[in-house]
């Protein structure tokens, strides 16, 4: 399968990130008037770098100025590889160091150092800059990354850098496109004639044109009306791609950067998060208990407090600290998500880490809480299996072992516990997921019954299709069949109903329907065209189709042909009378004598008997079956 990656440019202001991006992609990502005037990047810039049969690579150019650190974090939060730009004539600068710390905290492990503007200095000076960078990278995750010497204006090193990026990503695992879709929004704008558009990097899963989505944390429902990848229309977008999505039913004012577009409600919306945090190596100010912090998670920036359970302050880096973030606004988070913590005043990055549990609770101060958080951090084998199944919905034994790094025997033992459910001979799910699907089917059927009370039920194929963006089709079918077996749902042919539902005429139209049926019954065998009865009873045009189908399905009326209907009682009486008064076979003339009908009604009646399998025609005779 084709793989999709987004890489980021990071580094100090005026170290050539935007110019390097343009040299690699031929796209100027500084598009704002203010950016042109001030010659600095203020907002995130995006450009396509490379595409072939195997790979599609996009570039995010992030601002280097300290005032725009929020935009920088939002841009690099979803990248797979970083290009750290360091100017040959300046070397390592304050934002070089801060960007490095941020990249480390966000768990970005793949990088390339691009020493830019090499034509401005001599070879000896470039060598000194490289030594300075190597010293700065010691002890960081980028300690062993490759270096490329570049000059964007002359083109030196550009092709080599591009080839190195492609080669590195070919060796790198791509993001998971199988799970639920999630896109943290980093830009919101309107397009004339199209409406609201959001843009971001697809963290995981995939999205398709026309798919129902939710904007979290507010739960606003919307639909992906159109998709674009690199300004080109697309039917779908996958994990690792930059995507622009035209949303229906929402205005620009309904959405903010930092919100998240998802296809599933299984992502936690939370304000209290249990976390593992590391602080920066040289804290300038003490981090105190319940100190106000800015938390950057995904593309969101939220104020909150940091809560320690084993100390009241922190003055230097002490490895990984288990603590809690209590935020002022809700965010979307899941276990393993990365975040950055910054002090609001004076503004500085103080640390970062990863989410242990997005649904934290209030705990007592003391060692016991640290021990509990430590166990939760490590995650019991059962916790890890539950997390894997929560994300993927259904997995085989081998898939569970790979995703949890547990041995097969342990996985087998745990999957036999009551929290888990075997779907088929190979695959498993969580009992909680089965119950959630069952509840959703019931809700969807209930909604269908309320809107269509006269219909037999919802079409099974349409129901499965409506739910396939949230759950695998096979899993929904499994839950559905299980529900039918235990009578939670009913099935009539291709139609599904909730257990207590039966088709019925809405109370508001019952009297008019009764009048229609009374008039039809009064006319006996010699009926008027059926539409005349609708008109006489005052039944509106938009109700006719559903009502006619309901009356037919319930055999309250029987169509002889497209125009003429008999009341079901009269039809059954006619069949009994004809059967009683004829032999095993009979002719049309005999039937006309028995029922006293003209050919206008007699011929359609007999043809109806044939179509229902009550009689069989043999030349000019009918034979009872």
UniProtKB/TrEMBL annotation:
The keyword Protein biosynthesis applies. The keyword NADP does not apply. Keywords: Cytoplasm, Elongation factor, GTP-binding, Nucleotide-binding, Protein biosynthesis. GO terms for cellular component: cytosol. Its main location: cytoplasm. SUPFAM superfamilies: EF-Tu/eEF-1alpha/eIF2-gamma C-terminal domain (SSF50465), P-loop containing nucleoside triphosphate hydrolases (SSF52540), Translation proteins (SSF50447), Winged helix' DNA-binding domain (SSF46785). InterPro entries: Beta-barrel_SelB, EF-Tu_GTPase, EFTu-like_2, Elong_fac_SelB-wing-hlx_typ-2, P-loop_NTPase, SelB_WHD4, Small_GTP-bd, T_Tr_GTP-bd_dom. It is found in: Cytoplasm. One of its GO terms (biological process) is selenocysteine incorporation. PROSITE patterns: G_TR_2. Gene3D superfamilies: 1.10.10.2770, P-loop containing nucleotide triphosphate hydrolases, Translation factors, Winged helix-like DNA-binding domain superfamily/Winged helix DNA-binding domain. One of its GO terms (molecular function) is GTPase activity. It comes from the Bacteria. Translation factor necessary for the incorporation of selenocysteine into proteins. It probably replaces EF-Tu for the insertion of selenocysteine directed by the UGA codon. SelB binds GTP and GDP. NCBIfam families: selB, small_GTP. This is Selenocysteine-specific elongation factor. It comes from Cytobacillus firmus. The lineage of its organism: Bacteria, Bacillati, Bacillota, Bacilli, Bacillales.
């Amino acid at each position: 399968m084709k793989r999709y990656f987004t890489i980021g440019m990071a580094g100090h202001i005026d170290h050539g990130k935007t110019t390097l991006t343009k040299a690699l992609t031929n796209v100027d990502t500084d598009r704002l008037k203010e950016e042109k005037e001030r010659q600095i990047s203020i907002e995130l810039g995006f450009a396509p770098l490379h595409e072939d049969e195997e790979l599609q690579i996009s570039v995010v150019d992030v601002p280097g100025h300290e005032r725009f650190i929020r935009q920088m974090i939002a841009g690099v939060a979803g990248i797979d590889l970083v290009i750290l730009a360091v100017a040959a004539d300046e070397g390592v600068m304050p934002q070089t160091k801060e960007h490095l710390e941020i990249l480390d905290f966000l768990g970005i492990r793949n990088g390339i150092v691009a020493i830019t503007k090499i034509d401005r200095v001599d070879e000896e000076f470039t060598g000194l800059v490289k030594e300075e960078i190597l010293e700065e990278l010691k002890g960081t995750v980028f300690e062993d990354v490759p270096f490329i010497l570049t000059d964007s204006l002359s083109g030196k090193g550009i092709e080599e850098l591009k080839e190195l990026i492609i080669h590195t990503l070919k060796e790198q695992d791509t993001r998971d496109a199988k799970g639920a879709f999630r896109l943290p929004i980093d830009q919101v704008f309107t397009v004339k004639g199209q409406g609201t558009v959001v843009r971001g990097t697809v963290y995981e899963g995939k999205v398709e044109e026309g798919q129902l989505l939710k904007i979290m944390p507010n739960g606003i429902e919307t639909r992906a009306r159109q998709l674009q990848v690199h300004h080109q229309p697309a039917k779908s977008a996958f994990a690792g791609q930059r995507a622009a999505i035209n949303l229906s039913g929402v205005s620009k004012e309904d959405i903010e950067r930092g919100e998240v577009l998802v296809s599933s409600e299984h992502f936690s919306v939370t304000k209290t998060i249990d976390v593992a945090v590391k602080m920066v190596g040289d804290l300038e100010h003490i981090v105190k208990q319940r100190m106000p912090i800015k938390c950057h998670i995904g593309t969101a920036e939220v104020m909150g407090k940091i809560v320690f359970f084993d100390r009241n302050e922190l003055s230097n880096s002490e490895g990984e600290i288990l603590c809690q973030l209590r935020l002022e606004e809700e965010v979307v988070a899941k276990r393993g998500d990365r975040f950055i913590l910054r002090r609001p005043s004076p503004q500085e990055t103080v640390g970062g880490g990863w989410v242990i549990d997005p649904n934290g609770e209030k705990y007592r101060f003391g060692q016991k809480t640290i021990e509990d958080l430590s166990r939760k951090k490590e995650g019991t084998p059962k916790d890890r299996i539950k997390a894997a199944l929560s994300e993927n919905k259904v997995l085989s034994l081998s898939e569970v072992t790979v995703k949890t790094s547990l041995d097969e025997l342990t996985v087998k033992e745990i999957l036999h516990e009551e929290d888990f459910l075997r779907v088929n001979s190979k695959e498993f799910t969580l009992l909680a997921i089965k119950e959630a699907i069952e509840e959703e089917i019931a809700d969807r059927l209930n909604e269908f019954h309320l809107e269509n009370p006269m219909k037999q039920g919802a079409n099974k194929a349409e129901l499965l299709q409506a739910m396939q963006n949230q759950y695998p089709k096979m899993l929904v079918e499994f839950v559905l069949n299980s529900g039918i077996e235990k009578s939670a749902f009913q099935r009539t042919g291709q139609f599904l109903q909730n257990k207590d539902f039966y088709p019925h005429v809405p109370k508001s139209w019952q009297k008019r329907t009764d009048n229609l049926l009374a008039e039809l019954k009064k006319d006996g065998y010699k009926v008027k065209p059926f539409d005349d009865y609708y008109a006489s009873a005052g039944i509106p045009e938009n109700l006719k189709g559903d009502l006619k189908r309901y009356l037919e399905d319930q055999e309250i009326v029987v169509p002889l042909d497209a125009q003429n209907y008999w009341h079901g009682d009269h039809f059954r009486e006619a069949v009994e009378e004809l059967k009683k008064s004829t032999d095993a076979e009979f002719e049309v003339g005999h039937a006309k004598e028995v029922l006293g009908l003209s050919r206008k009604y007699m011929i359609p009646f007999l043809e109806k008997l044939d179509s229902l399998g009550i009689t069989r025609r043999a030349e000019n005779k009918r034979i009872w079956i």
